[in-house]
Design brief:
By secondary structure, the protein is α+β, with helices and mostly antiparallel strands. The protein is built from 8 helices and 19 strands. A hairpin with a 3-residue loop joins strand 18 and strand 19 (299-305). The protein starts with 14 loop residues before the first strand and ends in a 7-residue tail after the last strand.
Length: 312
């Protein structure tokens, strides 16, 4: 360490911050900023939003990072403005214009086309994406003027509706599975309508059970007194609210934290589900212990465990 350089002591903070990411920020830049504001030791985000996109970006701190994958796998909801009649290299406003077409589309045509995209569909990932080929993200090939073959991926569009149509702008609301590219969806809608399209704006409104209405803006975090910032975090189990819960007595809690499989049926306990994932708490203080899998014969198998240092 250089002479007179002061080492910053980071805090062990556990929880989830729901951030309303501003436009122009990468997800990683937003994470670094909030991590500094909280002076937190360990942090991670649960899936990226493109810089031009805004909206819900759950940020995990400390023990919550163990459960970030659950949000990566969760369904997500978005509102997007699709600009009909213009195709760009990136499928959004950050790219160069490739084609322009007249827009002569009716509301009935739009409604019919949107119905075609509900359910399981195949999407070809865009070249301007972070997917890697030979260790290098696709966007690096794209910036070098190269287009690589990409295999289509199966995704699920649970709901797709038109909120407003004022030519050439089509505002849609989408609920979809993980791995869905809304940029590609917008382009594909434009292709079927015969006029091409790109995304003018994208806002994520929901991730799993987490909602944008509960999120804080970056400006609000900055203006908040430092002593109150950590109080803005939701508890670790906010990431697990979709899982059934089970409460273990003291002895079984200790065994669970040691990684032991527990026969809940033999212990005379009622199972929250016959099989599947569950969030596990200690009964006396309702402290989260982690997640487990209920497998055959009523056995609870530990999955991801909370460190004993945390009070989450």
């Amino acid at each position: 360490m250089a002479k007179n350089q002061v080492k910053i002591l980071r805090q062990a903070i556990d929880g989830v911050l729901l951030l309303d990411k501003p436009v122009g920020w990468s997800s990683n830049d937003a994470l670094i900023k909030v991590k500094r504001l909280l002076n937190a030791k360990k942090a991670g985000h649960t899936g990226t939003l493109d810089p031009f996109a805004t909206g819900l970006l759950p940020l995990c701190f400390g023990e919550a990072t163990k459960f970030a994958q659950d949000l990566l796998d969760a369904d997500k909801s978005y509102e997007a403005i699709v600009h009909l009649g213009i195709k760009t290299t990136t499928g959004d406003t950050e790219g160069e214009v490739l084609e322009t077409h007249a827009v002569d589309v009716t509301q009935n045509q739009i409604d019919a086309v949107l119905l075609q995209f509900v359910g399981e569909i195949d999407q070809v990932p865009p070249m301007y994406s972070a997917l890697k080929r030979d260790g290098k993200p696709l966007y690096e090939y794209a910036r070098a003027g190269l287009t690589l073959d990409r295999e289509a991926r199966r995704v699920h569009i649970h709901a797709l509706e038109c909120i407003q149509y004022r030519a050439p702008h089509l505002t849609i609301r989408v609920t979809c599975s993980k791995g869905t590219y809304i940029r590609v969806l917008g382009e594909d809608i434009g292709a079927v309508l015969g006029c091409g399209a790109h995304l003018q704006a994208l806002r994520r409104t929901q991730v799993g059970a987490l909602l944008l209405k509960d999120a804080l803006t970056l400006d609000a975090m900055i203006e908040m007194p430092e002593s109150l910032r950590s109080q803005s975090l939701a508890p670790v189990d906010a990431l697990l609210s979709s899982f059934p819960e089970i409460f273990l007595p003291e002895l079984l809690s200790a065994r669970f934290l040691q990684g032991q499989r527990l026969s809940l049926v033999k212990e005379g306990m009622t199972l929250p589900v016959e099989q599947g994932r569950t969030r596990v708490y200690r009964q006396n203080d309702r402290r989260l212990l982690g997640t487990g899998q209920i497998v055959e014969f009523g056995v609870l198998a530990p999955e991801r465990l909370i460190s004993t240092h945390t009070s989450a």
